[in-house]
């Protein structure tokens, strides 16, 4: 389901987060394997954003884009356990502040770092692992 605007996508995600089940994943993916995703663990959330290792050569992040990821609070890849950019929240239930932070990281990273033109270019997928 495609959102009409970034604000619509943000609102829909904010409404979904409180109802997530353990091991449920929400993935937002754009062309060129640019994505953000989250998984609800038993005690919190883990978010990921695509690292250069998984991007095509002509779509790799520039040093400026990687700086923007760090400025937003993403932690850099740390293989072998963390192959993508990541961010953890180690508490449940999520507060309103935590929910806003998670949604901001997911949506704004696509828009402001990966330079996705609009939410119509984003495929939202949900599944359980």
UniProtKB/TrEMBL annotation:
Sequence ranges of Basic and acidic residues compositional bias: 61-73
Domain (TY-Chap N-terminal): residue spans on this chain: 5-121
Pfam name, any one: TY-Chap3
Region (Disordered): 49-76
Stated name of the protein: TY-Chap N-terminal domain-containing protein
């Amino acid at each position: 389901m495609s959102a009409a605007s970034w604000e619509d996508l943000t609102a829909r995600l904010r409404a979904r987060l409180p109802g997530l089940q353990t091991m449920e994943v929400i993935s937002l993916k754009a062309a060129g394997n640019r994505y953000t995703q989250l998984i609800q663990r038993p005690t919190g959330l883990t978010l990921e954003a695509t690292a250069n290792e998984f991007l095509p050569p002509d779509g790799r992040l520039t040093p400026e884009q990687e700086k923007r990821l760090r400025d937003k609070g993403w932690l850099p890849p740390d293989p072998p356990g963390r192959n993508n950019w990541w961010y953890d929240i180690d508490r449940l239930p999520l507060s309103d502040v935590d929910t806003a932070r998670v949604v901001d990281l997911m949506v704004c990273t696509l828009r402001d770092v990966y330079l996705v033109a609009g939410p119509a270019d984003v495929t939202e997928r949900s599944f359980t692992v």
